[in-house]
Write a structure and sequence with these properties.
Elements: H1 10-21, H2 25-32, H3 36-43, H4 49-58, H5 63-70, E1 85-92, E2 95-103, E3 109-113, H6 120-128, E4 132-137, H7 143-146, H8 149-155, E5 160-164, E6 175-177, E7 182-185, E8 188-194, E9 203-208, E10 214-218, E11 221-222, E12 225-226, H9 233-244, E13 252-255, E14 261-262, H10 263-269
Parallel strand pairs: 3-4, 4-5, 5-6, 10-13
Antiparallel strand pairs: 1-2, 2-3, 7-8, 8-9, 9-10, 11-12, 13-14
Length: 276
């Protein structure tokens, strides 16, 4: 199976963070002591290491990690779940979006996270493994993440659909939770953590009981990047640091776009959150 590309390149990260922090090109070039021409080159994807390092420092990014991203020098090692976990990657327009399925091997109860644009693969796993879909959890209600929700609900009307109350769904039977609610499925415990910013009720689902601790993070962050927001970007950064980056280091991160990664890897390689 081909590798899923990183969601953002280095220039995407620069543009996303600059936009979120509301720093103009003129102000950034002045602070970084570079020309506007060089800034525009870097923002359009030209790899100029001295300029990248200067821009990184003045946007609060880790310069070596951003330069490594620019050189395509690193890709996350995807942790392996021996059982009870499946990931799906479907096309939505010119982008690709992830959805996930987890299940308890003993009870055969299953949980879906988002749907992407198609649930064909998810339904195949549910049917072939004789699973009973108990819950469908939505990270946030942007169309690319819930496009196939009606199809999944039609195939499994017994499944309860849940989202944070700030992420209303048009589905009449959908239910809403507040932060900190726990759901139990077989031996698995699923805790809801609101990591808003990209959207008002963007939720991270932290799962214990699989081979690895798992955080299904939607568009809170991506490998080597972060979920964007033109109006609440600082909230996104703060919520990620406080609620995701304080999880156990071996937590697997399952984002809404791009490859699966781990907290330990992102602490070393994500220029937005890199600690060392």
């Amino acid at each position: 199976m081909p590798l899923i590309p990183l969601e953002d390149n280095f220039d995407d990260v620069i543009n996303k963070v600059q936009r979120g922090l509301q720093v103009s090109d003129e102000a950034l070039a002045n602070r970084a002591e570079i020309s506007l021409e060089d800034l525009h080159k870097v923002k359009n994807g030209e790899v100029i290491p001295p300029v990248i390092r200067r821009v990184a420092r003045h946007l609060g990014l880790n310069a070596p990690a951003l330069e490594s991203l620019a050189r395509h020098a690193w890709y996350p090692e995807v942790p392996v779940f021996p059982r009870g976990f499946a990931a799906f990657n479907t096309a939505f327009g010119d982008m690709r979006v992830n959805s996930y399925l987890i299940w308890d091997a003993k009870s055969r109860e299953a949980v879906a996270f988002d749907t992407g644009s198609s649930v064909d693969g998810m339904l195949d796993v549910i049917n072939s493994d004789r699973l009973r879909l108990k819950y469908v959890f939505i990270t946030h209600n942007h169309e690319d993440h819930i496009a196939a929700l009606p199809e999944l609900v039609s195939a499994h009307p017994e499944a309860e659909v849940w989202s944070h109350r700030e992420e209303p769904l048009t589905l009449e039977s959908a239910q809403h939770f507040d932060e900190g609610v726990h759901f139990h499925v077989g031996s698995m415990d699923i805790k809801t953590l609101v990591t808003s910013g990209h959207s008002a009720g963007q939720t991270t689902y932290f799962v214990k009981g699989l081979s690895w601790p798992l955080a299904v993070i939607g568009d809170s962050l991506f490998s080597c990047s972060v979920g964007g927001s033109p109006t609440h970007f600082r909230d996104q950064l703060a919520n990620n640091r406080r609620k995701i980056f304080t999880l156990p280091r071996d937590t697997v991160l399952a984002p809404g776009h791009g490859p699966i990664t781990s907290l330990a890897q992102e602490k070393k390689h994500n220029p937005v959150f890199c600690y060392g």
